[in-house]
């Protein structure tokens, strides 16, 4: 197994982990109202929302994980295009 194949395998595993983490982070966000979150009971917990600092940190982590997720997808695509692995 070549070094590029190992790198590709590691990136694929990290991509799966980041995909699950990103899904969980997105689901943890507070509903803004008027959308599907209200339809499924999101409107009932509006007063029990998180504080402003916690929400900002959740937003930061979501954006960071999303950017890393996109970078890994681009990297895997380039590896596949140029047949490095």
UniProtKB/TrEMBL annotation:
The keyword Chloroplast does not apply. Keywords: Cell membrane, Membrane, Protein transport, Translocation, Transmembrane, Transmembrane helix, Transport. Its main location: membrane. The chain crosses the membrane at residues 6-27, 61-79. InterPro entries: SecG (IPR004692). It is found in: Cell membrane; Membrane. It is a multi-pass membrane protein. One of its GO terms (cellular component) is plasma membrane. It comes from the Bacteria. One of its GO terms (biological process) is protein secretion. One of its GO terms (molecular function) is protein-transporting ATPase activity. Belongs to the SecG family. NCBIfam families: secG (TIGR00810). Involved in protein export. Participates in an early event of protein translocation. This is Protein-export membrane protein SecG.
């Amino acid at each position: 197994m070549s070094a590029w194949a190992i790198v590709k395998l590691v990136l694929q595993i990290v991509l799966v982990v980041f995909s699950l983490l990103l899904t969980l982070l997105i689901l943890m966000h507070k509903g803004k109202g008027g959308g599907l979150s209200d339809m499924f009971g999101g409107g009932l917990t509006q007063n029990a929302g998180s504080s402003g600092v916690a929400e900002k940190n959740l937003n930061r982590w979501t954006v960071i994980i999303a950017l890393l997720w996109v970078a890994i997808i681009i990297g895997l695509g380039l590896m596949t295009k140029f047949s490095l692995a």
